[in-house]
Design a protein that fits this description.
This protein is of the alpha/beta class. About 50% of the residues lie in helices and about 15% in strands.
């Protein structure tokens, strides 16, 4: 079967020129339209990599307004399309305006078929190369994922992921300790997916978000008529997660009377619904998380020590985003790619000042703050590249703690800069070495010395 011909969309209202162009490019699948509505319809239906566009289209055949409107719509819908603009009107001014608005190239009428053919073929080649580069970049990005979907290149976070993978196929209770927005639920879901329970339900509940008087019913369920409004028997979250995993977020907010009932479940693996008298055997694994100091709460009598040891058979401490050098850049690029696709396809990346601002910010809200700022920036961006102003991060923050040991300070600085450079260059050794101003052998030596990986 012969390879499918690449699609070329020609937007031209002159019928004689239409025929001439159609027969000139036999090695392309040529689609010809003569007005704005037809051009956009063909763009959506055919998704051509390259478009030749006459700026003088009806109802403004002697001007450029209609042609520029088509160009703007193409750039908004499919910004990777290579648009070659042709016009006989105010050639130089139109050319500059077209390039500013996203056109790939410009050709002045009267058209030389052979020369225009060279421009068209070059546009197809560039589009193919860019497409291959995007695919390679996406593939390279997969190398920075662990535990199924966690994006990181930081050794601290890789260690967390490896710990979770090791305990996934056991039945031990796992406690995740980390600040708000560090990805505790994502890690809990990763643990579930890596375990033999992955075919069962993963149920998550935020204990801080549910009023105390409703939390018991949410966890243990209730029988019909157990209280006013209990019009039917309802299973609780523990029961719904039978054969799977229950993630208790902010477990420190569970009131003391309910802590007793949860401890009994962990000891006996049975529950009783509110208003019920029958013990129900449930095989549910508990994974919990909190940002609170539970040991201090135990000392104050606000959290049961025996429950703590039942829940914390394995404790995993999750580092803050500011402790994961290079990860902010990796995550920002991943968020941009996702949000641009969903909300603003014209955004293609970050400007250098934005990357510097991301590197320099302390991220008190961790990954959640980063995600929200990138989302807002993508929605509000006026150009293809998000700048530092779009992120609204200020001037960054200086590290407060001073390090008096010169060797330790130098090593810490080296590690941080190398990891930032690796993240910026997406693991490309040549680009990283060039960015750092050192040779490739020197970079390899440093990577080995500091146990870093590209």
């Amino acid at each position: 079967m012969a390879d499918q011909k690449p699609k070329l969309l020609i937007v031209e209202d002159d019928e004689g020129l239409q025929a001439q162009l159609k027969w000139a490019y036999e090695d392309f699948e040529v689609v010809i339209v003569g007005d704005r509505a037809s051009a956009i319809a063909a763009l959506r239906a055919e998704e051509p990599p390259v478009v030749t566009l006459d700026l003088g289209l009806p109802p403004d055949p002697d001007g450029t307004t209609e042609g520029f409107a088509v160009l703007d719509e193409i750039m908004a819908l499919k910004p990777d399309t290579k648009v070659i603009v042709a016009s006989g009107h105010g050639a130089r001014e139109s050319a500059l305006t077209a390039i500013e608005r996203g056109a790939y190239d410009f050709y002045q009428k009267p058209i030389d078929i052979e020369q225009l053919g060279l421009i068209v073929r070059r546009a197809f080649s560039l589009h193919r190369i860019e497409q291959e580069n995007r695919a390679l970049a996406a593939k390279a990005g997969d190398g920075n994922t662990v535990l199924g979907g966690l994006i990181t290149s930081a050794p601290e976070m890789v260690k967390v992921a490896r710990t979770i993978e090791r305990v996934a196929n056991t039945n031990v209770s796992v406690m995740l300790l980390g600040g708000s927005g560090t990805g505790k639920e994502l890690l809990a879901k990763g643990l579930h997916d890596a375990s033999t329970r992955k075919s069962g339900n993963f149920i998550a509940i935020n204990c801080a978000a549910i009023p105390e008087n409703l939390l018991e019913s949410e966890l243990f369920g209730h029988e019909k008529g157990a209280f006013t409004g209990a019009v039917k028997t309802t299973e609780g979250k523990i029961e719904l997660a039978d054969g799977g995993t229950l993630f208790l977020d902010e477990v420190g907010d569970i009131p003391l009377p309910l802590q007793v009932k949860l401890l009994r479940f962990l000891q006996e693996r049975t529950i009783e619904r509110i208003g019920g008298r029958k013990s129900i055997a449930v095989d549910t694994r508990i994974v919990c998380a909190t940002h609170q100091d539970l040991e201090a709460m135990i000392a104050d009598g606000r959290f049961r020590e025996d429950l703590f040891y039942r829940l914390a058979e394995v404790v995993v401490k999750i580092p803050a985003l500011s402790e994961r050098s290079g990860d902010a850049t990796l995550l920002a690029k991943a968020f941009l790619k996702r949000f641009a696709k969903e909300m603003n396809p014209s955004v293609t990346g970050f400007a250098p000042d934005a990357l510097a601002a991301i590197d320099g910010w302390n991220w008190p809200g961790n990954v959640r703050e980063l995600e929200n700022r990138v989302k807002r920036a993508v929605i509000m961006a006026d150009s293809k590249l998000i700048g530092a102003e779009d992120l609204d991060l200020g001037d960054g923050e200086e590290e407060g703690a001073s390090v008096l040991n010169l060797k330790s300070a130098r090593e810490k600085a080296d590690r941080k800069v190398i990891r930032h450079a690796l993240a910026r260059s997406e693991g490309n050794i040549t680009s990283t070495a060039k960015m750092l101003g050192i040779s490739r052998p020197t970079l390899y030596d440093l990577l080995k010395q500091y146990d870093l990986h590209a």
